[in-house]
Design a protein that fits this description.
Blueprint lengths: L2 H40 L4 H42 L1
Helix pairs in contact: 1-2
Length: about 90
């Protein structure tokens, strides 16, 4: 197995990881920021107020982008498994 191939596969995996996780992370970040601004404006320091909207937003994004995420991951795993015979021998 060539070291360049290993590095290339690792880079592809990390890029895919960032691409697939970005929608959920960005939406949860924006929702958390909006809730924090709301809490600062109203001086409400309830811990569930910051937790529940993030969970709801994450579930909504997973419901919308979930099929794309699963399809992308399955395609990557399929391509990786099909590349094993060529990488070994």
């Amino acid at each position: 197995m060539d070291p360049q191939l290993v590095l290339s596969m690792g880079q592809q995996g990390l890029t895919l990881l960032l691409m697939v996780s970005a929608p959920v992370l960005l939406v949860v970040l924006v929702v958390g920021l909006l809730v924090s601004v709301f809490q600062a404006a109203t001086q409400i320091n309830e811990s569930t107020l910051s937790f529940v909207p993030k969970v709801v937003a994450a579930v909504v994004v997973l419901g919308i982008a979930g099929p794309w995420m699963v399809t992308t991951l399955v395609e990557y795993i399929r391509n990786t498994l099909l590349a094993i015979p060529g990488a070994v021998g």
